[in-house]
Write a structure and sequence with these properties.
16 strands, V-type_ATPase_116kDa_su_euka, single chain, 5-stranded antiparallel sheet, flat, Alpha-Beta Plaits, 4-stranded antiparallel sheet, alpha+beta, 26 helices
Length: about 850
């Protein structure tokens, strides 16, 4: 039985499925979701598969469903209701009938949209034409009057806003008369009376006005007159047309006057090039009024038709919306089934499909029941045959049974790499170590409570938020809500140790130190009989740091010393845990080489160097440097552990008297250094040499076995497979078949150098715990003193309120968001590089178990 520590035990199955029951079998397997299919048609391309046409049909149906969904969302502004999807409803749908229905439905919706577009375009044209007629009154009321002189010229009325246009006449009247400029006419070549001026009127978009004016001026050489009017200038706009303003709000009404037919033809082409909407604008007031009345009647009729059409469209789209989710689920399931069927191999001689795949061992019984249900539902004549492949050649996939709490930690682990089959999983350890490392860097009671509160809200509303589509940031926080909860709780715990709440030290148990006038240094409240002696308290602060350290001048150096040592202790402990876990991996896979020539020298090297440093830290902490015997001895002083560590490698046998922590320290350090030096070639040489010896020996054994009967060879191979078992035995066989001593030696050399150098760099990397904890604490103190306390000292209510809001914004935005993200990334790096690389995913051949399932 598998657990979270190791992946589930897998078995490889081969199914022989009758052709008539293949579809129903895949449906039942996808409903169960515990069987991963292997591709038995790898040599075939996607388009050569048996069910490629069915997959393309499903793709086309999904395209039509996306089109219908877009139309429904656009048409129905309110939230659309959806029917509950049931298995009976899905089974009642037939894919071929649904495909035909969707094809017809797409055509009907397209036709409805085309008809609707034509109605709206006609409505726009009628509304624009009516607006133009109302604007035309303004055009012609302001039109200039001309005097027809006896010399055959037109004399414009004095108006600074209009330009004069001189037009020759073929005949002149003796008597001067005043008339409209548009009323001036001449006799053409065919003897017909022609108007001297022509005009076009319509709507033009706002962004095309300036290019239109320039081209019009160049083509007409200044002989055309353009007048523009915005809708705001038309005071007589009928209220029934006001709701159309959103469709042509960025358009302007225009009229252009021009002399001559040839110029009018050119201007018409210009209007067509700028997509200008031209309409009929009679010059006479009576004609305009009659045309406007007919347009109003036409507009009212259009409004009636549009309202009826809109109601019909909404009803049609509501019916589509009720069935849309059911159709999408049906097509998605069928596409999954056809993809699965394309992975099967068809045996034409026996008319059966052959399926090959992996299944968890404890789900084998459920899989057989599933196959029986498919057989009964399809009324198959012969049952599905299940064959268990005892000695598969390929590596089984990795599968863990996860829940909503453990899945986020497993995802963090697998971001580094998928574990090999039944390799030790770091996730159970990550559940504890990841929040703890985060909390060391983020330790604060107040900040931890805010983070815990946010996580608690997400957990409390997980049913409501789980079914909604959230933005990326909220979705990320929701997926990691349980991790955020643990990080907040651990931060509260470390905050109590640091005695910090929003940067303020809490005096929960009364300080054990006090300051006196006799000395500038504090003394313990129960040992201040002689204040000059500055003795520490006998009864220490029960939990965490004494609040007096936040006010002490040497408080920062004291906290730095503690956090630095704590970082080294935590780092070395976690790395030793990773090395110990590598033993359990090697023991599980029965790899004696990895135990004796990888685990043992690595453990000895790490323990004799940085493990010894951790031991020195604890000895220094446990030594009473204020004891009378120590105070009377001038050599009894706390040593600098950095110098001690350097001396371990430079002069291990020589320890100064004032730097000794225990008797025979020099001799013990010499032995530890010797063991650490011997561990390096111990890691480097034996494993490649033993592998070379085994490879040569296996060649001799194979040469001797060539004379054996074939049956003995097969039995021997099966026996060896059975004894070795597991994934690593298969990999060892592959290595033996293609053994290259130079490659193995270089690989072991790289691994040895990486571990030796990494022991130093990884230990130093854990100092980031101290650095980020210091940065977080100092930032909290700076925001508190410089922002909040300074504004409170002004004793002005508005300044206090502004200071508090600014402090709250900086606390949440910088400390709770940016600092938490920084601490999260650093904790992630420590787990991936410093912890997991000691034992996890060393082969890099793990692959995730991806079963065929409708829920994926």
């Amino acid at each position: 039985m598998g657990s979270l520590c190791r992946s589930q035990e897998m078995i490889k199955l081969r199914l022989f499925v009758e052709k008539s029951v293949a579809h129903e079998t895949m449906v039942e397997l996808a409903e169960l979701g515990v069987f991963q299919l292997n591709d038995l048609n790898e040599e075939k391309s996607t388009f050569q598969r048996t069910f490629a046409a069915d997959v393309r049909l499903c793709d086309e149906m999904q395209r039509r469903l996306r089109f219908l969904e877009e139309q429904v969302d656009f048409q129905l502004e309110e939230q659309r209701l959806e029917d509950t999807i049931t298995v009976e409803a899905l089974q009642s749908l037939q894919l071929e009938e649904l495909a035909r229905y969707l094809c017809d439905l797409e055509g009907n919706v397209t036709e409805m949209n085309s008809h609707w577009g034509a109605l709206k375009a006609e409505e726009r044209k009628v509304a624009e034409h009516a607006i133009l007629l109302q604007a035309g009154a303004k055009f012609f009321e302001d039109a200039p009057k001309v005097s027809l002189s006896e010399y055959g010229t037109t004399i414009m009325s004095p108006d600074p806003e209009h330009r004069s246009i001189n037009i020759p006449r073929s005949s002149a009247k003796n008597d001067e008369e005043t008339t409209s400029l548009l009323g001036v006419s001449k006799t053409g070549r065919d003897g017909m009376e022609e108007s001297i001026l022509g005009y076009y009127a319509g709507f033009i978009s706002f962004e095309n006005i300036h290019p239109f004016e320039r081209i019009l001026f160049r083509v007409s050489r200044g002989n055309a007159y353009l007048r523009l009017v915005s809708l705001d200038e038309i005071s007589s706009v009928n209220i029934r047309f006001e709701k159309m303003e959103n469709e042509w709000g960025r358009k302007r009404v225009f009229i252009v006057f021009f002399p001559g037919v040839a110029l009018g033809t050119k201007i018409l082409k210009i209007c067509e090039a700028f997509s200008v909407s031209l309409y009929n604008l009679p010059e006479g007031e009576v004609e305009r009024y009659r045309l406007l009345q007919s347009l109003e009647q036409e507009f009212n009729d259009l409004q009636t038709v549009i309202a009826s059409t809109q109601s019909q469209r909404e009803e049609a789209f509501r019916e589509i919306a009720l069935q849309l989710s059911l159709w999408k689920e049906k097509v998605r399931r069928e596409k999954t089934i056809f993809h699965a069927l394309n992975l099967l191999n068809y045996d034409t001689s026996n008319n059966v499909y052959i399926a090959d795949g992996w299944c968890p061992l404890d789900e084998y019984g459920n899989l057989q029941d599933c196959l029986s249900r498919a057989q009964k539902r399809a009324h198959a004549q012969s049952p599905t045959v299940v064959e268990v492949i005892k000695y598969p050649k390929d590596t089984p996939p990795t599968f863990y049974k996860l829940n909503k709490f453990t899945i986020v930690f497993q995802n963090v682990v697998e971001s580094y790499g998928v574990p090999c089959y039944q390799e030790l999983n770091p996730a159970p350890f990550t559940i504890v170590t990841f929040p703890f490392l985060f909390a060391i860097m983020f330790g604060d009671i107040g900040h931890g409570m805010l983070m815990t509160l946010v996580a608690a809200i997400l957990i409390f509303k997980e049913k409501q938020l789980g079914g909604r589509k959230l933005n990326e940031l909220v979705q990320t926080c929701f997926d990691g809500r349980y991790m955020i909860l643990l990080m907040g709780l651990f931060s509260v715990y470390t905050g109590f140790i640091y005695n910090e709440c929003f940067g303020v030290s809490l005096n929960l148990f009364q300080t054990r130190w006090k300051f006196t006038d006799a000395s500038s240094l504090a003394c313990g409240v129960d040992s201040c009989a002689d204040a000059l002696s500055n003795k520490p308290p006998l009864d220490i602060y029960p939990f965490g740091f004494d609040p007096v350290w936040s006010r002490a001048q040497n408080g920062l150096s004291f906290l730095n010393s503690y956090k630095m040592k704590l970082s080294i202790i935590v780092g070395v402990t976690q790395m030793l845990l990773g090395i110990v876990l590598s033993y359990f991996n090697a023991s599980f896979f029965r790899s004696g080489l990895d135990i004796w020539y990888v685990f043992v020298p690595q453990l000895l090297f790490m323990s004799c160097t940085f493990g010894y440093l951790v031991l020195l830290i604890f000895i220094k902490w446990l030594t009473n440097w204020n004891a009378p015997s120590c105070l009377s001895d001038s050599r009894c002083r706390p040593p600098d552990l950095k110098n001690t560590l350097i001396g371990l490698f430079m002069t291990p046998y020589k320890v100064a008297e004032d730097a000794k922590l225990f008797p025979f320290q020099g001799e013990i350090q010499s032995v530890l250094l010797l063991i650490a030096i011997v561990s390096v070639p111990w890691m480097l040489l034996p494993k490649p040499l033993i592998l070379l010896y085994r490879h040569r020996k296996s060649k001799i054994v194979i040469g001797n076995e060539e004379q054996r009967p074939l049956l003995d060879k097969e039995l021997s191979t099966q026996t060896n497979n059975h004894v070795q078992g597991g994934t690593h035995s298969d990999m060892n066989k592959k290595e033996e078949e293609s053994f290259d001593f130079g490659e193995v030696m270089i690989h072991q050399l790289i691994h040895t150098i990486e571990f030796v150098l990494g022991a130093v760099s990884n230990t130093a990397s854990y100092l980031r715990l101290w650095a980020l904890s210091l940065a977080h604490s100092e930032l909290s103190l700076v925001f508190l003193e410089k922002v909040l306390y300074n504004t409170i000292s002004l004793e002005h209510p508005i300044a206090i309120m502004i200071g508090f809001l600014l402090w709250a914004f900086l606390t949440i935005g910088v400390l709770c968001l940016m600092e938490s993200l920084s601490a999260f990334l650093h904790a992630l790096r420590l787990h991936w590089v410093e912890f997991q690389n000691k034992f996890y995913n060393l082969q890099g051949e793990g692959r995730k178990f991806i079963p065929m399932s409708f829920s994926i």
